[in-house]
């Protein structure tokens, strides 16, 4: 995790949230949540691929 990524995480509102509130938000707009989840998975996968490629390149 880079320093910038850490700063973004640190800036997130960390108030406690009831699970029912989260579910209500999800139920109100599931398409938005699905889109965000898919984008996060794709970004993570792309990062892993790039990192793995760089590590492999350094071995050669």
**Proportion in helices:** over 70%
Q: Note the beta-strand portion.
A: under 5%
Number of domains: 1
Order of helices and strands: HHH
Mean pLDDT: 77
Largest sheet: none
State the helix count: 3
Task: Determine Rg (CA atoms, Å).
Answer: 17 Å
**Spans of at least 5 consecutive residues with low confidence:** none
Structural class: mainly alpha
Give the CA-CA distance, first to last residue.
25 Å
Form type: elongated
**Total strand count, please?**
0
Describe what this molecule looks like in 3D:
This protein is mostly helical. It has one domain. It contains three helices and no strands.
Attribute tags:
60 residues, mainly alpha
List the SSEs and their pairings.
Layout: H1 3-10, H2 19-28, H3 30-59
How would you briefly describe this protein structure?
With 60 residues, the protein is mainly α. The chain has helices at residues 3-10, 19-28, 30-59. The protein has one domain (16-59).
